Amino acid sequence: MKNIEMSRIFDKIAKILRIQNDNPFKIRAYEHVAEIIENLPIEVESIYRTGKLEEIPGVGDAIAKKIEELIKVFYNTDISKTNAEARSTFDAFIKSYKKMSGKK
To answer: Of 30, 38, 52, 71, which sits most exposed with the smallest number of CB within 10 A?
Structure first.
């Protein structure tokens, strides 16, 4: 997964949280990490493989776990899946996130 793709996902999560009137600090954390990941000089995946995600500015334990989940979902998804199936995977990730955060 490229940094720009991951950045866009975190930006979408921030937008969903904003719509849900979630904690403004949490929203800003997702916006911030989206910006940081987009501008990293190396792929976040490489950092993940070294076990140093939390060394990325703005990445704490919770966001590190989300990055790991995104990477695992991305690589466990058959590349030949259609866009509809890929969208379904993304929707499942968002549902999982909402369930973990207590949102409906």
So the answer is: 52
Q: How far is CA 94 from CA 6, 44, 47, 57, in A?
A: 13, 20, 23, 23
Q: In the predicted model, what is the mean pLDDT of the chain?
A: 84
Confidence of residue 80 (pLDDT cuts 50, 70, 90): very low
Rounded to whole angstroms, how far apart are CA atoms 96 and 99? Answer: 5
11 residue type, one letter: D
**H helical segments located in 20-82:** 24-38, 44-50, 61-76
- Residue-range domains of the chain with CATH: 3-101 (1.10.150.110)
Which residue's entry shows tokens 């910006």?
Answer: 35
Measured CA to CA, the distance from residue 45 to residue 18 in angstroms comes to: 27
Q: How far apart are the first and last CA of the chain?
A: 27
Q: Give me the half-sphere count of Cα atoms (radius 13 Å) on the Cβ side of residue 5.
A: 11
